[in-house]
Amino acid sequence: MSPAPDDRPDRKAGAAARVGRAYTADLVRVALFTGVVVAHSVNAINSGPEVTRGSHLAGTLLHLTRYGFVAVTLFVLVLSMRGKTMTATQFWRRRFGLILWPYLLWTIIYAITDHLVIRNNPFPSTGTWFADLGEDLISGTGKYQLYFLLISMQIYLFFPLISKIVERFADHPWRVIAGGAVVQFGMFALYQYTPRPLPPFWQNIFLHLWKTLPMYALFITIGAVAAYHHEAVETWLRSHVRLVVACGLGSAALSVTAYWLATSPGHVPLQANTPWNPAHLPWLVCGFALLWLGATLWDDRRRTGKRSGARFVSWATLRAFGVFAAHPLILDILARTGFFRQLFEWFPGAPVARAVVLIITVLALSLLLVDLLLRTPVSRYLVARPRIPLPGERRVRQALARGRADPVGDH
Predict the structure, then answer these.
(1) Which residues contact 339 (CB under 8 A, 6 or more apart)?
(2) What would you measure as the largest C-alpha separation in the chain, in angstroms?
(3) Residue 197: what pLDDT?
(4) 11, pLDDT greater than 50
(5) SS3 of residue 267 by DSSP
(6) What are phi and psi of 20, to 5 degrees?
(7) Are the CB atoms for 52 and 46 separated by under 8 Å?
(8) Higher-scoring residue by pLDDT: 252, 204
(9) 341 has a pLDDT exceeding 90
(10) Residue 203: how many CB atoms within 10 A of its CB?
(11) CB 147, CB 141: distance < 8 Å
(12) Strand partners, 267
């Protein structure tokens, strides 16, 4: 990741100075994290045969979040590293600490709370518990969202190589994207169309191969190339608004049609709503482009000084990862306390209303929990953010500092 011995560092430093903070990425990331909460909440509250088709359709469209996360992660990494000289070892030392501790701690937390909170799930023997914990840590199965932290660590591991490839083909970005598309489509086809069941060896590989980088190759290249050519990309988006909107809506219609034709009321085949269905790939790409277009236009408004909610986006960005990590625990607690049952009593025959109320409740309680964690000494290890001082804490520290600075024995 060290720059080549030519004039590129100067150009990169200038680009970095012009870019500043990627506010577009902040808004996209907040939207994606919210989408994750929506998807998990909808699936948690709507599981009966009469609502399965609709809830899984929402989940199918919201598979966009996992691929969007990968693209945003690469975008932010490439943009933040431009103009900097850092060896691969230095990069790994800096980045892995940000994600490794949250991954380890939340895996352990869920290994405990799953048995404390979820009904009919008692603790196993000590040996079995530790064996399960070890397997969860290796495979990213501690909770249904933690696999993405495993993917993030792989991105960090291979980022020095990815950045060199993008820089090597800086003048031919479509070659990089085309290569990613070939790998991506190949992985989708492999997972979607390989006959089942498989022999045990291959079955075990299939259980975990989707959590490796080849499954996200196209979005890795999209995020990295978009960062390297961010000004050209955003200029193109601004000048092709109608095309991007049309592609986004058209691809969404294609995914909905494909899903609806493959399902029937009360019957949703597994392959109809998989995250790797090739029929949904246009939506995953165009939907992300549409989301980025919206963030770009919002950032344009922010730059003009108009009211845009920029403070809220910054506030939400600080808490987004924590909400991602903690919201399954909130869902488990709500289910255990009978809140789900209460929702069915309040909104009989109204699955949409139940889902909306649950989404709002989960977001609110997750944000409250994250705000509490942000003010603890373990904030960096649980929510990957520095600790926020308690109200009045700065004033107390300043007063103590002034007291220590005053000469003793003046009176």
Answers:
(1) 358, 361
(2) 88
(3) 83
(4) no
(5) strand
(6) 65, -150
(7) yes
(8) 252
(9) yes
(10) 11
(11) yes
(12) 264
- The token pair that represents 63 in the structure block: 């598979």
What's the whole-number mean pLDDT along residues 184-191?
A: 95
Beta-carbon contacts of residue 317 (< 8 Å; ≥ 6 apart) = 26, 29, 30
Mean pLDDT for all residues in the chain: 89
pLDDT on residue 211: 95
- Answer yes or no: are the C-beta atoms of 292 and 286 closer than 8 Å: no
Answer whether 29's CB lies under 8 Å from 74's CB: no
CB atoms within 10 A of CB 408: 6
In the three-class reduction of DSSP (H, G, I as helix; E, B as strand; rest coil), residue 36 is classed as helix
DSSP string, 166-197: HHHTTT-HHHHHHHHHHHHHHHHHHHHHS-SS
As given in the structure block, the two tokens for residue 321 are 């990862």
Residue 204 contacts residue 266 (beta carbons within 8 Å): no
Q: Which token pair is 251?
A: 């691809």
Q: Confidence band (pLDDT; 50, 70, 90) for 140?
A: very high
Alpha helices in 240-377 (DSSP H): 241-262, 281-303, 310-336, 339-346, 351-374
* Sequence-ordered list of residues with C-beta below 8 angstroms from that of 208, at least 6 positions apart, any chain: 139
Residues 52-73 have pLDDT tens digits of 899 999 999 999 999 999 999 9
| One-character DSSP codes across 234-250 | HHHHHHTHHHHHHHHHH
The two three-digit tokens of residue 180, written as one number:
């990613």
Q: Please list, in sequence order, all residues whose beta carbon lies within 8 angstroms of the beta carbon of residue 136, skipping any fewer than 6 positions away.
A: 107, 110, 111, 142, 146
Q: What percent of the chain has pLDDT over 90?
A: 74
How far apart CA 238 and CA 244 sit, in angstroms, is: 9
CA distance 117 to 114: 6
By the 8 A CB rule, do 292 and 298 touch?
no
200 token code pair = 């045990």
Return the closest-CA partner of residue 4 out of 168, 198, 155, 205: 168
CB 322 within 8 A of CB 382: yes
Position 20 pLDDT exceeds 70: no
As a whole number of angstroms, the distance between CA 137 and CA 146 comes to 10
Count CA within 13 A, CB hemisphere, residue 252. Answer: 16
Instruction: Give the confidence band of 359 by pLDDT, cuts at 50, 70, 90.
Output: very high
| H/E element, 377 | none
